[in-house]
Each structure stands twice: as structure tokens, then as C-alpha cells.
Write a structure and sequence with these properties.
6-stranded mixed sheet; Metallo-beta-lactamase, Chain A; 7 helices; alpha/beta
């Protein structure tokens, strides 16, 4: 059996979550699962994650990994909910330590040790691991965030926010630790994977009403990405990205997302009244 990927679209946050099934047909990994969140009430729900759980169970798969491409700023992770239901280990790139350190200070998270220990595993550059008999390699792709990584396996690459669809472009670089020059280098790494490699998106905002797509080939991105094509120079990209980022509003869910996701998807600890709270830092972000 060859590897396969089943993708799930979360319309509220325009997020793609992916289930990778290894070559043996029995082992699986889930990449970037979403926890439903109502900003107006602060309520969380698990319907989207449960749909993924139900599919994995229906296929008779053993979940080996829950992989985060980075600590997302636009949706909350459902990794702990999925782990409780299906097992598996929660992994992220080792750059998460830098992200945790920055946001621990901003949100005054006294419970958080910025050493990555809330995750089950921190992936190093070039590290290899198996899922269902298929071998993944970890490719650091910083620029959007310090901890951004791409998971590469047999013609599939799960790229997080490094690139969006060709008609939408590339990730912003104005978050703490972001760097447009690093992002350009990371995109070039992806383009070097080979024209037929499928680049699986974390988001597709689908301009002009087209249907969202979970992946585009390297060839499609190289030829048509509005921000980085073959002929685009680093200086052109950095100038464009820096100018564009100045006018972008912050993601709607950045405040709850970051506080949850640097904790590996766990909600903040409950206070003495039994309720957990999201903090809003005034005049800071």
C-alpha cells in the first residue's frame, strides 16, 4: 500500500488539518488539528476534531503522532483532545522554546516553563521518524515564526504557514521572532524538494470564491505564487513582505491561540474558583 492523505477543512479559521496514513496502511499522524472556539463566549467545542477522530477510528488506524507545524496564532490546537481519544505523541519543532520564552513574558504565564517540556517531543533539524512504516524528515522553515517546521515524507510536505495558495502568497513575518529573509530562504528550501512534491497547506483563504484546496505542487507554487516565483529575488521579497506586514491586522484569535498553543494545546490552568482564563495584554501587542 502507498501512503495517503485525508484532509479536513475548518471553515471558521480557513485551516486545513491532515491525516497521513503510512505505507503499511495501519499507522497514522494527524497534522495541525483545530479546536473549535467561540470568541464571543470563550467556549471551546470539539466537533471538528471529533470528525477527524471518527475517520481515524473508522479506518482502523493506530495514531502514532500529532504534529504541529508551529504554535499557531489563528486557531487553537486540538492536540490534547485527540491524544486523549486516540493516543499518539504531540510533537513540534525545537524552536518552540524561543516562542514560549517570548509569550511567557507577554502574557505573564507563571505556570509555563519555556523549555518545550509540555510537548511530548521536540524535533531537531534533519531528524527522522516513522509513521506506519513511512519515514519523515524534519525540515526547519523559520521566518513566519522561530518554531516553524515542515514535515517531509515520500513526495508529501506539510508546510504550515510558510506558503499559502499561489493566489494568496506567503506568510507574514511581523510576529515576535519573524524574519522575511529567513522566510525567503525557507520557501527556497521547499522549492528544492522537487516539482512533483505536494505542499500541504495549513490555511487556504480561497480568494474570489474559489474552492479551498489542501495542497499545491512545488511546480505550481514556483510558477504562480504571487509573492515568490522562480525569478523573485530575496531583496524584492523582503521589501514586499515588510511593506505588506505593516498594514496587516493581527489575527482575530491570536490572544487565545498563542496562550493555548505554546502550552501544547492545553488550556490555561484553572484559578481558585475552578475557571480558566485567557489574558488580554492591554496596549502591548
Amino acid at each position: 500500500m502507498t501512503e495517503q492523505v485525508k484532509s479536513f477543512f475548518h471553515d471558521q479559521t480557513k485551516t486545513w488539518s491532515h491525516v497521513f496514513v503510512g505505507a503499511d496502511g495501519s499507522g497514522a499522524a494527524i497534522i495541525d488539528p483545530v479546536l473549535d472556539y467561540e470568541a464571543s463566549s470563550g467556549r471551546t467545542h470539539t466537533a471538528s476534531a471529533d470528525a477527524i477522530i471518527d475517520w481515524v477510528r473508522a479506518q482502523g488506524l493506530a495514531l502514532e503522532w500529532i504534529l504541529e507545524t508551529h504554535a499557531h496564532a489563528d486557531h487553537l490546537s486540538a492536540a490534547p483532545h485527540i491524544k486523549a481519544a486516540l493516543g499518539g505523541r504531540i510533537g513540534i519543532g525545537e524552536g518552540i522554546r524561543k516562542v514560549q520564552a517570548r509569550f511567557k513574558q507577554i502574557f505573564n504565564m507563571s505556570d509555563l516553563e519555556p523549555d518545550g517540556s509540555v510537548f511530548d517531543h521536540l524535533f531537531a533539524e534533519g531528524e527522522r521518524f516513522t509513521v506506519g512504516g513511512s519515514t519523515f524528515e524534519v525540515l526547519p522553515t523559520p521566518g513566519h515564526t522561530n518554531d516553524s517546521v515542515t514535515y517531509v515524507v515520500d513526495g508529501h510536505a506539510f508546510i504550515g504557514d510558510t506558503l499559502f495558495a499561489p493566489d494568496f502568497g506567503s506568510a507574514r513575518c511581523d510576529f515576535p521572532g519573524g524574519d522575511a529573509g529567513e522566510l525567503f530562504a525557507s520557501i527556497r528550501k521547499l522549492y528544492a524538494l522537487g516539482d512533483d512534491t505536494r505542499l500541504y497547506l495549513c490555511h487556504d483563504y480561497a480568494p474570489e470564491g474559489r474552492e479551498p484546496r489542501p495542497w499545491f505542487s512545488v511546480a505550481e507554487q514556483r510558477q504562480a505564487n504571487r509573492h515568490v516565483r522562480d525569478e523573485t529575488s530575496e531583496s524584492e521579497f523582503v521589501s514586499m513582505r515588510t511593506t505588506r506586514d505593516r498594514d496587516l491586522p493581527l489575527p482575530e484569535l491570536i490572544v487565545p491561540s498563542v496562550q493555548v498553543n505554546v502550552r501544547a494545546g492545553r488550556l490555561p490552568p484553572s484559578e481558585d474558583n475552578g475557571i480558566a482564563y485567557i489574558k488580554v495584554p492591554l496596549n502591548t501587542l
